[in-house]
Amino acid sequence: MTATTDVSERGPLALAIIDTLVHRIGKDERAARPHDWLEATILTLRNEIIERWMESTKAAHAAGAKRVYYLSLEFLIGRLLRDTLANLRHRDEVGDALRQLGVDLSAIEELEPDAALGNGGLGRLAACFMESLATLDLPAYGYGIRYVNGMFRQRIDDGWQVELPETWLAHGNPWEFERRESAYFVGFGGEVTGDEAGRVHWKPGEAVEAVAVDTPVVGWRGKRVNTLRLWTARSLDPFKLDAFNRGDFEGAMADQLRAESLVRVLYPNDSTAAGQELRLRQEYFFSSASIQDIVRRHIQYFGDIRTLPDRAAIQLNDTHPAVAVAELMRLLVDHHELDMDAAWAITRATFGYTNHTLLPEALESWPLPLFERLLPRHMQLVYAINAKLLREARAAEGIDDRAIAAISLIDEGGERRVRMANLAFAGAHSVNGVAALHTQLMKSTVFADLHRLYPDRINNKTNGITPRRWLQGCNPALTSLIAEAIGPDFTDDAQKLPALAPFAEDAGFRERFAAVKRANKVALAEHVRDTIGLRLDPDAIFDVQIKRIHEYKRQLLNLIETVALYDQIRSHPERDWTPRVKLFAGKAASSYVNAKLIIKLANDVARRINGDPSIGGLLKVAFLPNYNVSLAERMVPAADLSEQISTAGMEASGTGNMKFALNGALTIGTLDGANIEIRDQVGADNIVIFGMTAEEVAAKRAGGYAPRAVIENSAELAQAVNAIASGVFSPDDPNRYRDLMNGLYDHDWFMVAADFDAYAAAQREVDRRWGDRDGWQRSAIRNTANMGWFSSDRTIGEYAREIWGVL
Ligand code: 26V
After folding, report:
1. What is the Å distance from ligand 1's center to 248 Cα?
2. Residue 504: how many CA atoms within 13 Å on its side-chain side?
3. Residues 467-698+757-796, CATH architecture
4. Active site residue 562
5. Whose CA is nearest to atom 10 of ligand 1?
6. Which residues have a Cβ under 8 Å from the Cβ of 131 and sit 6 or more positions away?
7. What are the residues facing 225 on neighbouring strands?
8. Where are the domains of the chain?
9. Could you report the per-residue pLDDT of 556-603, keeping only the tens digit for each?
10. What are the angstrom distances between the C-alpha of 570 and each of 57, 223, 401, 567, 616?
11. Which residues pair with 116 in a beta bridge?
């Protein structure tokens, strides 16, 4: 890219970008590469943000405002440039300035790496929440870890997933500010002693320094700029000069390496990752630094630690930061010399806890000896808290020994373990689920006994998504069309979207709505052709399942149904089949063997079906590599059908389901998580629901489920399962899927067989609806019109009023 336009036509913004390029990056415009333009643009934009950022902080300080602190080990932000420009209403101006310099803004936006500091839904939710907090003008900080390597990059080699390190910081990160002055000691291990005055002293055996790195978060219309504060680690004595001078270069670096290992990598959310020492170290590292920072700010502004709950609300994003409960207790008791009861009252009034999963393997607990070795003082405090908790429990009515054992912070069954969910529950005044069904299940299953003891604590906050990224940003054509129909007010308040509903009856509007979808499909088809060399028919149904690969999410159900459909088309080519494109994307945790095998199956099925000329292109299957936020932003606007087919009771909420429906896709889904509330909003006629309810799943499990009989009773299912098991899709290794398919016969934990016939019938219902073109478009429009409620602005409003007391 070189400047081609007349230099005299350059406006002040273009000149500012050139100035940044020369003085900050050290290049002239002829030498500048596209990445240099990206960096110069971000750095120039940052200058504008900084002033608003400082204003936001000053105003909150002056008002003595209560601040919200969102503690999360994951923030799946994706790219920032496009959304930041859009929120500042600055995109056209910056686009013009760059054009004067011969640079294409969209092209450099595509060069920005995704900040992939999260696994999936939980991390993306944290990112949507940060944007909504700024949009609602609430003073808030996100706290997390600045991982050097975020979520791995996925390559597909011969159909198999290969994990490559993700290097989002390779070109530096122009968004961030390192705050060397905001640094804290974080200790591990060592010993605890007491003095004559009864004070307790913890002398850690090792310590690292946590250093703050801040990223600005700009709300809609730039109203407010909040801070995402991610911690990086430094050794206290980064370079032991004496060792170096003796020639012991490795010894000199060892401490630094140990510190760096803390922030090196994001843990995958699979069961093998659970219980690893480095993970607990990460959890304590970022919780301790964050709590120290919050307490320091409170003392600096307000002087008295006892008013903390009036000025700070700390939300725990799952149990990953639950050790923060013990850390705040430690600071209150050991440093601020409060007694246990006073400290406990402050702690409970300050924390809220959000649960994001009921899967038993994801409920964190730490072997007691490990917890004690790493955090000896916190162990004592956990015992002390537990004593209080169990005293309260014993005094309550109807709590027997079994309930006491379930409530205890210590799991005594087998190897003793510290239960982080119980600690978070006990240490918070609010405990919330993320969709109505999930919250109900929290009360009746995992937290049943704690709920009986504290019946007012559990509450629901159904998840949401930011419409700035997930409608306006990713689907500008649909945004313009909606604005033409109902005016632009919906961009300030997504709950105005229902005004679009009457347009479902307007034939002209339906055509334009369909044309936008088709253009998005053409764009995605081009991307698919460029990345995996497959040609897609944009007039086929684009049927999309994109999410982490997990057995409970049942990509396997979709694949088996795909095989059954393929078989049907081959057997009955004369029937009036609906052309379909099955699109998959998602990452499997590297040690999750079945998940990786499911990716291989998707690719094997794709190769066979896409290469079979006898089905006349009626069915195509594609697995798109390296699913991330940016790929989702391409796929969501192009989907006709959204696959949300988890085993009922297992998906806490889902948020992908919301993104698709907002962009006019119909959902095929089970009555699980937020699907239920989506049905309530869009209307049962505009969604395709199938399968067992959570209650039916539980009853079937309890009653002894026999999948073999189910498979043998369904000709279509048996045919598909046997074809996969016998190697029809893996002639190079006919046994590749034998065990996976035998698992369906033997136990079928996720009830793929039990739901198969209902799912296949639901897919034929989708075909039928697609055949009624007007009916489909009506439904699509009603989906968009009725999804405003799922804006994360609504969700954050509820947290703010009902948990944090800040609205
Ligand atoms: C668990 C573990 C355990 C082992 C160590 C690493 C690790 C990392 C994350 C997790 C928890 C995963 C929980 C989660 O992502 N839940 C998802 O949260 C979404 C937002 O609320 C929700 O929409 C999804 O349904 C839910 O699966």
Report:
1. 43
2. 22
3. 3-Layer(aba) Sandwich (3.40)
4. no
5. 269
6. 83, 87, 217, 219, 220, 466, 468, 469, 792
7. 218
8. 322-380+412-461, 467-698+757-796
9. 999 999 999 999 999 999 999 999 999 999 999 999 999 999 999 999
10. 65, 58, 61, 5, 10
11. 76
